[in-house]
Amino acid sequence: MRLRDSPAARIGASIAIATGLYGVSFGALSVAAGLDLWQTMALSLLLFSGGSQFAFIGVVAGGGTGVAAMSAAALLGIRNGVYGMQLNALLRPAGWRRFVAAQFTIDESTATATGQTDPDERKRGFWVAGVGVFVLWNLFTAIGALAGAAMGDPKQWGLDGAAVAAFLGLLWPRVRAFQPAAIAVVCAVATLLAVPFVPPGVPILVAAVVAAGIGWFRHRNVRHDADGMEPDVEPYAHHGGAALEPGERA
Q1: pLDDT value of residue 128
Q2: What predicted TM-score, i.e. pTM, was given to this entire model?
Q3: Domain of 189?
């Protein structure tokens, strides 16, 4: 089957376009946070995880240390490891493809692949979404970084706090049910209480520890098939194929 005739490939391509365009925001906000073009591009090329990247520059913009920024990014990146275990069982990549697939294992490629019922369609969806997002995300990151650098002092445009605002914009649509909303409120309170007493960047780590503690104490009562934090792209499976609606990149 040709890629243009594959439902999964079409879904993956549409998601890649929608997600890739959002890289403009990251590029501009990264420069506004104080990173240069090459540092910004290194984050998109090597880290390549939207939520983790926004967390990193959010901490840097707030005056946090590199260790705090990396810790915040790593906490959000844990989910990609979980995705990797799931996709390894579904796709069974062999040889060099396993290493390449690891880099392309993100929210969008995972959702596209797991939304299919046919094994071949899963592979097509994964690779089209993963490669497509990688290429376009990095392309538009560069465009955003160059545009941001040309704007001059970010404070003149109100971009000094935009990294935090962008991350909140990504998080808000994911909180769909009462329990995750309640946890978010508790973590926000813990963050505010920690701000006066710890260095910049550490409050977000305090919030992560609080969330992990709540999850650990409640894990036996959690329904794993119901509400909670929604994936960035939601698959809706149907017989003979699957439809997938693109959402923001996290």
Answers
A1: 95
A2: 0.69
A3: 175-229
